[in-house]
Amino acid sequence: MANDYRERLMSASNDRPHPLVDPYLRIILSALGPRRATAFLTAALKAHQEERAREGTIQLGFCAYLSDRLGETWGRTLAEISAWEAMQAVRRLVRADPETDLGRQLSHGLALAVASGPATTAAR
To answer: Source organism's superkingdom (predicted)?
Structure first.
């Protein structure tokens, strides 16, 4: 069922997850599980939006904004370190391909995490 939802979501738009980014988004999901991956990817998307909003000004950058959103205790487990490193790989790949947008890729990862999570009461 989760795969059907993801396929519908992806086919509803012309955008597709980049084939080299998708495995790293799956690492994040695998390492953190659906709920924590959703929170992590939401924080990453907000950090990306903040970075773009401050474009052209002096700024701290994506990593600082993401770290701030995740809090001081983030990064103490192997799962969190794995997710952080996968996110860094996603950013490097996206920067290398000017046609790929980080926000869209993070949105794809977020949709995957939400679709992989447990059904909510409203969905039953």
So the answer is: Bacteria
Helices then strands, counting H and E runs in the chain, come out as 5, 0
Q: What are the domain boundaries of the chain?
A: 20-116
pLDDT (tens place) for every residue of the chain, 124 residues total: 445 434 443 443 445 778 899 999 999 999 999 999 999 999 999 999 998 888 888 888 889 999 999 999 999 999 999 999 999 999 999 989 888 899 999 999 999 999 987 744 333 3
Which pTM was predicted? Answer: 0.80
